[in-house]
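Q: I'm a student working through a structural biology exercise. My instructor gave each of us a protein and asked us to get a predicted structure, then write a short paragraph describing it. Mine is Crinkler (CRN). I'm not confident about reading structure output yet, so if you can add a plain explanation after the tokens, that would really help. Here is the sequence I was given:
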Amino acid sequence: VIIRECAGHIGALRIFIDSVVKFFEKTPPQQQEVLAFCFSETVVQAMGPLYGRRHVIPSDIEFQTFLIKCLLDDSMPLPMQYDERSCFIRLMKTGIIARDAKSFVKFTSPLATRYYFKYLFPKRGHHNPSSLNELIRKVIGNMSARVLMQSTVDKNDFPNEATFKHQFMEGLALWTESTCSICPELSKVFPALPNQPSQHNRGEIDFYLDGSLRWGIELLVNGDKIGEHMSQFAPKGKYAALAAEAYAVIDFRGNKTGESTNVARIPERITVFFKLGDFSSCRCIFGLAEDAEPITLNH
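A: Happy to help. First, here is the predicted structure for Crinkler (CRN). I'll explain a few features afterward.
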């Protein structure tokens, strides 16, 4: 996990391992405690001497959007024109992002992504929600109906996973404390089970919220491979070693009426129904609840 989190960067590995050793020097830790620490804000802050502490929040919206797309899509071509040259050069020099021979830009490691996350999503909450379901309600309500609509080509189209992920990352930051580390790419660094392929699945979108929460979240669209997603955080699942306090699989769906359909009720499943062509509100089924709960989105 540590090697994948650092993407093999020697300097990051050294700081990471030193942090783990120092934190657990007095008490032998359990595996789940070490894993929780690996995804903690303590590790992120320890990387300050390596990645630098003088970064700024991108003032240009287009450049900020470009960096977020790099985070979402792994790599993006560098725009021909951008006004934040000094910010871009600083990120390159400190090893947070890299540009290849074809001018594609990407974050150098999942750890670098987590380190710069606070600059891309600087607005944080004053306190944490009391439950995972409460957090999810707030995040869904914070989603932009306009952004969701603009991501579709016509009234019969539905937003893709990357659009929902962007909206969710912003909401998770807004409704959790700054001490809560948000890991947006858990599947990139967590070892696969023996019967699973080792490579990262681009359709696999997941979050882990550390700190005092230790919550896991997975997103999917239109029920794609929901059986596999339901088992990831469960006992004997891919993320079982994290011993998450709570987890949820959120299934975003669109239909012509926006009404809920007869989906299976499972405690950890949340199904969100939108009316195609209208993202101003949605209806959500939380866990075993029989009735759908309406949620109004931001404009």
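A: Here are two points you could use in your paragraph. The first strand starts at residue 76 and ends at 77. The chain is about 35% helix and 20% strand. It's a good idea to check both against the output above yourself.
Q: Great, thank you!
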